[in-house]
Write the C-alpha coordinates for this entry.
Amino acid sequence: MDGVDRAGDVVPSGDAPEPEAPTAGVAGGEVARRFAELSVELHESGGVDETVQAVVEFALQALSCSHAGIALSVRGRGFEVPAATDPVVAAIYDFQMTGGKGPLVESMRQHATVLVRDTATDQRWTEWAGRVLELGVRSVLDVPLTTGEGMVGVLGLYSVEVDAFGPDDEAVAHILARHASVAIGSARHVENLAAAVDARKLVGQAMGILMERYDLDGDRAFEVLKRYSQDNNRKLRDVAQDLISTRKLPF
Protein backbone atom coordinates (compact mmCIF):
# COMPACT_ATOMS: atom_id res chain seq x y z
CA MET A 1 0.00 0.00 0.00
CA ASP A 2 1.31 3.46 -0.85
CA GLY A 3 2.37 5.72 2.00
CA VAL A 4 3.23 9.33 2.76
CA ASP A 5 6.75 10.26 3.82
CA ARG A 6 6.54 12.97 6.46
CA ALA A 7 9.68 14.51 4.96
CA GLY A 8 8.07 14.56 1.52
CA ASP A 9 4.67 14.30 0.00
CA VAL A 10 4.34 11.25 -2.26
CA VAL A 11 5.52 7.69 -1.72
CA PRO A 12 4.73 5.24 -4.54
CA SER A 13 3.76 1.68 -3.78
CA GLY A 14 6.69 -0.45 -2.64
CA ASP A 15 8.87 2.48 -1.55
CA ALA A 16 7.70 2.74 2.04
CA PRO A 17 6.53 0.43 4.83
CA GLU A 18 2.88 0.16 5.74
CA PRO A 19 1.72 3.01 7.98
CA GLU A 20 1.54 2.04 11.63
CA ALA A 21 -1.82 1.26 13.14
CA PRO A 22 -3.57 4.07 15.04
CA THR A 23 -2.44 4.68 18.60
CA ALA A 24 -3.84 2.05 20.96
CA GLY A 25 -6.20 3.02 23.79
CA VAL A 26 -9.66 4.54 23.91
CA ALA A 27 -9.27 6.35 20.61
CA GLY A 28 -7.92 3.23 18.93
CA GLY A 29 -10.75 1.13 20.36
CA GLU A 30 -13.32 3.62 19.10
CA VAL A 31 -11.84 3.52 15.60
CA ALA A 32 -11.88 -0.28 15.66
CA ARG A 33 -15.54 -0.25 16.69
CA ARG A 34 -16.40 2.15 13.90
CA PHE A 35 -14.57 0.01 11.34
CA ALA A 36 -16.57 -3.01 12.51
CA GLU A 37 -19.78 -1.06 12.00
CA LEU A 38 -18.56 0.14 8.59
CA SER A 39 -17.85 -3.44 7.50
CA VAL A 40 -21.45 -4.39 8.23
CA GLU A 41 -22.77 -1.29 6.48
CA LEU A 42 -20.66 -1.90 3.38
CA HIS A 43 -21.78 -5.52 3.28
CA GLU A 44 -25.41 -4.40 3.32
CA SER A 45 -24.95 -1.62 0.74
CA GLY A 46 -27.09 -2.08 -2.34
CA GLY A 47 -24.63 -0.86 -4.98
CA VAL A 48 -21.63 1.30 -5.81
CA ASP A 49 -23.30 4.63 -4.99
CA GLU A 50 -24.47 3.43 -1.58
CA THR A 51 -21.04 1.94 -0.86
CA VAL A 52 -19.05 5.09 -1.61
CA GLN A 53 -21.52 7.23 0.33
CA ALA A 54 -21.01 5.04 3.40
CA VAL A 55 -17.23 5.41 3.06
CA VAL A 56 -17.19 9.21 2.84
CA GLU A 57 -19.59 9.55 5.75
CA PHE A 58 -17.36 7.27 7.82
CA ALA A 59 -14.32 9.39 6.88
CA LEU A 60 -15.95 12.47 8.37
CA GLN A 61 -16.55 10.65 11.64
CA ALA A 62 -13.20 8.90 12.01
CA LEU A 63 -10.67 11.33 10.53
CA SER A 64 -9.50 14.91 11.02
CA CYS A 65 -11.18 16.16 7.86
CA SER A 66 -13.78 18.80 7.11
CA HIS A 67 -14.83 17.27 3.78
CA ALA A 68 -14.40 13.94 2.01
CA GLY A 69 -15.11 12.43 -1.38
CA ILE A 70 -14.38 9.52 -3.67
CA ALA A 71 -13.45 9.68 -7.34
CA LEU A 72 -13.82 6.40 -9.21
CA SER A 73 -11.70 5.35 -12.15
CA VAL A 74 -13.82 4.82 -15.27
CA ARG A 75 -12.28 2.95 -18.19
CA GLY A 76 -11.92 5.24 -21.18
CA ARG A 77 -13.37 8.27 -19.38
CA GLY A 78 -10.84 9.16 -16.68
CA PHE A 79 -12.82 9.35 -13.46
CA GLU A 80 -16.22 10.29 -12.03
CA VAL A 81 -17.33 11.54 -8.62
CA PRO A 82 -20.24 9.47 -7.25
CA ALA A 83 -20.04 10.73 -3.66
CA ALA A 84 -18.93 13.86 -1.83
CA THR A 85 -19.86 15.25 1.56
CA ASP A 86 -20.00 18.85 0.42
CA PRO A 87 -20.21 20.94 -2.80
CA VAL A 88 -16.69 22.10 -1.94
CA VAL A 89 -15.38 18.62 -2.77
CA ALA A 90 -17.22 18.54 -6.09
CA ALA A 91 -15.61 21.88 -6.95
CA ILE A 92 -12.14 20.63 -5.99
CA TYR A 93 -12.57 17.56 -8.19
CA ASP A 94 -13.98 19.64 -11.04
CA PHE A 95 -10.87 21.86 -11.04
CA GLN A 96 -8.74 18.77 -11.61
CA MET A 97 -11.02 17.05 -14.13
CA THR A 98 -11.06 20.14 -16.34
CA GLY A 99 -7.40 21.06 -15.87
CA GLY A 100 -5.89 17.59 -15.69
CA LYS A 101 -3.60 18.59 -12.82
CA GLY A 102 -3.68 18.23 -9.05
CA PRO A 103 -3.10 15.71 -6.25
CA LEU A 104 -6.13 13.61 -7.22
CA VAL A 105 -4.86 13.21 -10.78
CA GLU A 106 -1.37 12.44 -9.47
CA SER A 107 -2.70 9.82 -7.06
CA MET A 108 -4.79 8.24 -9.82
CA ARG A 109 -1.91 8.12 -12.31
CA GLN A 110 0.85 7.05 -9.94
CA HIS A 111 -1.23 4.80 -7.65
CA ALA A 112 0.35 6.75 -4.81
CA THR A 113 -0.77 8.61 -1.70
CA VAL A 114 -0.43 12.38 -2.09
CA LEU A 115 -0.31 14.85 0.79
CA VAL A 116 -0.73 18.61 0.51
CA ARG A 117 0.18 20.12 3.86
CA ASP A 118 -0.85 23.67 3.03
CA THR A 119 -2.54 24.88 -0.15
CA ALA A 120 -1.21 28.37 0.61
CA THR A 121 2.42 27.28 0.17
CA ASP A 122 2.34 24.14 -2.03
CA GLN A 123 4.12 24.83 -5.33
CA ARG A 124 3.31 21.67 -7.33
CA TRP A 125 -0.11 22.66 -8.66
CA THR A 126 -0.26 26.39 -8.03
CA GLU A 127 -3.41 27.15 -10.05
CA TRP A 128 -5.33 24.31 -8.44
CA ALA A 129 -3.99 25.20 -4.97
CA GLY A 130 -5.07 28.82 -5.38
CA ARG A 131 -8.61 27.84 -6.26
CA VAL A 132 -8.82 25.34 -3.40
CA LEU A 133 -7.45 27.93 -0.98
CA GLU A 134 -10.27 30.27 -2.01
CA LEU A 135 -12.70 27.55 -0.92
CA GLY A 136 -11.13 27.55 2.55
CA VAL A 137 -9.34 24.19 2.24
CA ARG A 138 -5.80 24.21 3.60
CA SER A 139 -4.67 20.56 3.59
CA VAL A 140 -5.43 17.53 1.43
CA LEU A 141 -4.79 13.80 1.66
CA ASP A 142 -5.54 11.67 -1.43
CA VAL A 143 -5.28 7.90 -0.96
CA PRO A 144 -5.53 5.46 -3.91
CA LEU A 145 -8.16 2.75 -3.91
CA THR A 146 -6.75 -0.39 -5.51
CA THR A 147 -7.55 -4.08 -5.79
CA GLY A 148 -5.70 -7.01 -7.32
CA GLU A 149 -7.35 -6.11 -10.61
CA GLY A 150 -6.04 -2.54 -10.64
CA MET A 151 -7.03 1.02 -9.78
CA VAL A 152 -10.52 1.56 -8.40
CA GLY A 153 -10.33 5.24 -7.53
CA VAL A 154 -9.11 7.77 -4.97
CA LEU A 155 -10.33 8.67 -1.48
CA GLY A 156 -9.95 12.41 -1.00
CA LEU A 157 -9.78 13.98 2.49
CA TYR A 158 -9.84 17.75 2.98
CA SER A 159 -9.40 20.01 5.99
CA VAL A 160 -9.73 23.71 6.70
CA GLU A 161 -6.72 23.36 9.03
CA VAL A 162 -3.06 23.55 7.96
CA ASP A 163 -1.21 20.20 8.03
CA ALA A 164 -4.26 18.50 9.50
CA PHE A 165 -3.34 14.92 8.66
CA GLY A 166 -0.91 13.31 11.10
CA PRO A 167 0.45 9.75 11.15
CA ASP A 168 -2.65 8.35 12.88
CA ASP A 169 -4.93 9.96 10.30
CA GLU A 170 -2.81 8.53 7.49
CA ALA A 171 -2.94 5.07 9.05
CA VAL A 172 -6.73 5.17 9.44
CA ALA A 173 -7.09 6.55 5.90
CA HIS A 174 -5.10 3.62 4.49
CA ILE A 175 -7.20 1.10 6.41
CA LEU A 176 -10.36 2.82 5.22
CA ALA A 177 -9.02 2.78 1.66
CA ARG A 178 -8.49 -0.97 1.84
CA HIS A 179 -12.05 -1.51 3.09
CA ALA A 180 -13.41 0.81 0.41
CA SER A 181 -11.40 -0.78 -2.40
CA VAL A 182 -12.72 -4.26 -1.67
CA ALA A 183 -16.29 -3.09 -1.12
CA ILE A 184 -16.41 -0.93 -4.26
CA GLY A 185 -14.77 -3.64 -6.34
CA SER A 186 -17.36 -6.16 -5.14
CA ALA A 187 -20.27 -3.77 -5.72
CA ARG A 188 -19.05 -3.05 -9.25
CA HIS A 189 -18.72 -6.76 -9.95
CA VAL A 190 -22.30 -7.38 -8.82
CA GLU A 191 -23.59 -4.48 -10.91
CA ASN A 192 -21.67 -5.67 -13.96
CA LEU A 193 -23.09 -9.17 -13.56
CA ALA A 194 -26.60 -7.77 -13.26
CA ALA A 195 -26.06 -5.64 -16.37
CA ALA A 196 -24.74 -8.64 -18.29
CA VAL A 197 -27.75 -10.75 -17.32
CA ASP A 198 -30.08 -7.92 -18.33
CA ALA A 199 -28.29 -7.55 -21.67
CA ARG A 200 -28.59 -11.25 -22.40
CA LYS A 201 -32.32 -11.11 -21.70
CA LEU A 202 -32.78 -8.15 -24.03
CA VAL A 203 -30.79 -9.79 -26.82
CA GLY A 204 -32.79 -12.99 -26.38
CA GLN A 205 -36.08 -11.10 -26.68
CA ALA A 206 -34.88 -9.23 -29.77
CA MET A 207 -33.74 -12.48 -31.36
CA GLY A 208 -37.18 -13.93 -30.69
CA ILE A 209 -38.82 -11.04 -32.54
CA LEU A 210 -36.54 -11.53 -35.56
CA MET A 211 -37.03 -15.29 -35.54
CA GLU A 212 -40.81 -14.96 -35.53
CA ARG A 213 -41.08 -12.14 -38.04
CA TYR A 214 -38.51 -13.37 -40.55
CA ASP A 215 -38.58 -17.11 -39.93
CA LEU A 216 -34.88 -17.11 -38.87
CA ASP A 217 -33.12 -19.60 -36.66
CA GLY A 218 -31.35 -18.43 -33.51
CA ASP A 219 -27.87 -18.18 -35.04
CA ARG A 220 -29.10 -16.13 -37.99
CA ALA A 221 -31.13 -13.79 -35.78
CA PHE A 222 -28.09 -13.15 -33.59
CA GLU A 223 -25.91 -12.45 -36.64
CA VAL A 224 -28.43 -9.86 -37.85
CA LEU A 225 -28.30 -8.04 -34.51
CA LYS A 226 -24.53 -8.26 -34.30
CA ARG A 227 -24.04 -6.93 -37.84
CA TYR A 228 -26.26 -3.94 -37.19
CA SER A 229 -24.42 -3.29 -33.93
CA GLN A 230 -21.04 -3.31 -35.69
CA ASP A 231 -22.13 -1.34 -38.75
CA ASN A 232 -23.63 1.43 -36.64
CA ASN A 233 -21.08 1.34 -33.80
CA ARG A 234 -23.76 0.71 -31.19
CA LYS A 235 -23.81 -1.68 -28.29
CA LEU A 236 -25.64 -4.91 -28.94
CA ARG A 237 -27.76 -4.31 -25.86
CA ASP A 238 -28.92 -0.92 -27.18
CA VAL A 239 -29.80 -2.37 -30.57
CA ALA A 240 -31.86 -5.06 -28.88
CA GLN A 241 -33.59 -2.52 -26.62
CA ASP A 242 -34.59 -0.38 -29.62
CA LEU A 243 -36.05 -3.38 -31.44
CA ILE A 244 -38.03 -4.46 -28.36
CA SER A 245 -39.30 -0.94 -27.63
CA THR A 246 -40.38 -0.01 -31.16
CA ARG A 247 -41.19 -3.46 -32.54
CA LYS A 248 -39.65 -2.14 -35.71
CA LEU A 249 -36.45 -3.13 -37.39
CA PRO A 250 -34.07 -0.16 -37.62
CA PHE A 251 -32.52 -1.46 -40.85
